[in-house]
Amino acid sequence: MLRAMSRVVYSGADLLLDGRRQRADLTVESGAIVGIGGEGDPADNVIDCRDLIISPGFIDLQCNGAVGLDVTTAPGGIEAVARALPRFGVTSFLPTVVTSPPARRRAAIEAVLELRRRETGSGADAVGLHFEGPMISPRHLGAHVPAHVAPLDLREVDEWITSGAVALVTLAPELPGAVDAVGRLAQGGIVVSGGHTAMAADDLAAARSAGLSYTTHLFNAMAPFNHRSPGPIGAVLADDTLVAGIICDGVHVDPVAVRMAWHALGPQRTSLVSDASPALGMPYGRMHLAGFEIVHDGTGVRTVDGVLAGSALALDQAVRNLIAFTGCTLADALATVTSTPADLLGLADRGRLRVGSRADLTILDGDANLVATIVAGTLAHGRL
Predict the structure, then answer these.
(1) What is the pTM of this model?
(2) Does 275 participate in catalysis according to the annotation?
(3) Beta partners for 66?
């Protein structure tokens, strides 16, 4: 296994640099990128990467669980989820807690802080939590428990900010008090997203002015588009800068709708997410997500009533799907899981291949199939 402290040169690969592919060597030492183009001292290991593509590590902004584990009801499982995610090219992620009682959010905060204290480095980096709810529209719940829907308690918001463990919050901007909550969160350094919503263009504009910068799983769990009532979908696609998450599995969003959104958003405004449930990495069967029994079968992941409840989508498959659905280039598809989410979160040390960045690397073949995943310079999945 490659270790983070040794000096390693990945030789002859196509590197994803500034949105384009360029043949060059990449040198890694002590968990960081220390050279591009072959400069520097001799290496302890030289890895032949001819015919391979080295991308920055994938960043998943919405992951509810994996390998049978649900981070909402069992946040102690975040570490095991982190260990599993490099199998899908993911090197950083936001463990996502859906609408639930405050005690579960507090438990998730403590779980992330404990991981940071221990610095296990055993998988993808849980850079912060995504709280999806509880301030969502009762009319657009998706698979969220209605009894837990509630306005945001600004005292709890202050706890989130002080903890430093919360990276992103999804709320419905049209609800009373939402704009004030957006401002409080954004001023505290937390990314705010519109989701599970019926927001109109005016609601979005007010939330944008307060600091909202993202949209959670565009098309899903929101009011539908109508040419006389464009709703959240029309408002987002007409915006010039808002970034939108998309679950690109062909189930949550039809490929034609993905292609439509891609034409409006492009790589700098599209963030592919897995919205993974405990079904990711598991065979078909029944399991649980945040109080619901879910069924994983050939139609996707659903509640027993047939409502979509997250996915079993691997993020590397989402990249391949985007290429197939839209005809975009591999470089543009990779931006949606690297530089775009990194920029949204303000992560200057990842999302791009450059000297000084974390050595988080996702290595692919020419068909965008995953070959290996490197987390902070250490091989976390695959073989080289």
Answers:
(1) 0.97
(2) yes
(3) 69
